[in-house]
Design brief:
Length: 176
């Protein structure tokens, strides 16, 4: 099933799901973080430039849906495994969910999303083992650090269950 973000969920997901740190503090925290996944172009590229290689990265080649981002810094992850998938804005498609499962169960790598990767944080939290960390950028604020624990998994499960489920391929692409 493809999952569609409901209008009332937008404000909830606009707020960070975990603590947000400015760049210098984020860099220092990454130095103490093991087993992390980066979701988003800038945060993924910055982690690699800072010398911290994530287990996996999820990118879409854009920043703030406008500027094309250069993701060549992520070459080592792509060399491990590179998966391509499609996911329109405001959705968590079945295709994205399968790609995230494959990425996590297959030992990490690079997931390139044609469309929008922002909501990939949700299936990542669902699929990653406890003790993992997901980092993603919070525009204008810094880097969000989301610890994968029982409470976070439950919160994400509730969000996913609250989304509108439609049979794959039967929704209006990019409708919401």
């Amino acid at each position: 099933m493809d999952l569609y973000l409901r209008p009332e969920q937008r404000a909830l997901l606009a707020r960070p799901l975990g603590p947000v740190l400015p760049t210098d503090e984020a860099r220092a925290r990454l130095a103490r973080t093991t087993n992390f996944v980066a979701c988003g172009d800038v945060v993924s590229v910055n982690a690699m430039k800072w010398g911290f290689t994530p287990f996996a990265a999820v990118v879409d080649g854009h920043t703030l849906r406008e500027t094309t981002t250069e993701i060549t810094e992520l070459g080592p992850l792509g060399a491990k495994r590179e998966i391509w998938t499609k996911n329109p804005a405001g959705q968590v498609t079945e295709e994205l969910q399968r790609a995230v499962r494959e990425l996590v169960s297959g030992g990490g790598g690079l997931l390139v999303v044609e469309g929008e990767e922002d909501l990939a944080v949700l299936p990542l939290v669902r699929e990653l083992p406890l003790g993992s960390t997901v980092i993603y950028g919070q525009p204008g604020a810094g880097v969000c650090f989301l610890a994968v624990d029982d409470a976070t998994k439950e919160r994400v499960r509730t969000i996913l269950e609250g989304m509108e489920a439609r049979p794959t391929g039967h929704g209006h692409q990019g409708h919401l």
